[in-house]
Amino acid sequence: MMDNADRLVHQGKRIREIRVELGYSSDNVASLLEFSSRQLVYDLEKGKRDLKAYEAVKLAHYFGITPEELVTGESSAKAPISWRGEPDKHAENILRTRLAGYIKLEKFAGESSESSMPSYSLAADDSFESIAETAESVAGALNLGEYPARILAETIRKKWNVIVFTVPLSSGSAACIRERGISAVLLNSNDAWWRRNFSLGHELFHLLFTDTAGISEHRIEQLANIFASNLMMPCDTINANMRRLAKAESIQYFDLMQLSREYMVSTEALLWRMFFLEIIPKEIIDRFQSDSDLKALDKEVHGSIVREEPELPPDLVFLAYKVYLRGRISVGKLAEYLETTVGQLKRILISYGIEPFAKFYEASISNS
Question: What's the whole-model pTM score?
Fold first, then answer.
């Protein structure tokens, strides 16, 4: 067992290693911890200064790891993370930390559950048609209805224990990880809401198809897009909507823009779906992609809807508060799980519709 001096040296070395790996400067860390100068960061990394408890929490969150990992360097074996695009190391750490925190909260609340999400194998001879059939089967099993994007995140959370996080990504557009009993999807909060919806369907493919050995990455991504397209825009409802629109004298691009809003996807994604269903010719997509006026109108139609997703899903916030009310964690630990300070905790809870520390939350139902 190392003495305190050795512990500080070990801790300082680890802080420097993580800071350099993530590309942060000593000035970044000094600003975060409200140090008067970068010299205090050098002292910290040389083991000449210890971290205060609240500093460890802030720095660990900044690095995207747990305070325990920051201080001890110990972490368990990690499940692989699948990325759509270039991996974002910082965001990857955040995803692992949030998922680990959620698992701990479930255990504290006595609500740990095994996932019933199925697993599929991808074969070399799997075609677009076979993947489309799988997507239709999944949509049916989940009862996603006519417009799946509206309820997909909530449904996979309840039925398959998949939790969705959002975070601004410096690279890539989405990622996912499947642990035993629980899975998570990370979406890019910098993306437009319709792109995030499609990305969720895309990442669900990666969670479901756990065996892709021998299949090229390009082919896997192609099939993931086919899966997402068929999942989010069911064939039957597309045809029904087109029959409805066909009753008018002509179908305008504006009609299709409005329809894509119903499906909560981009107009371009809808057009490609209709092309593969042989409803429209490729020329209609080509014109849309090249016509600046149409693109501007589309941006206006979709931009009129603002969908700001909180970084922490409500399920996590409510679960953390429930565990706090049961006395399993302190108010400081609650703040840590919600990635804030005790001073800002009330504001965060209110933003999720929780009246902080109100006594009526503690009222219980008794059989007596």
Answer: 0.78
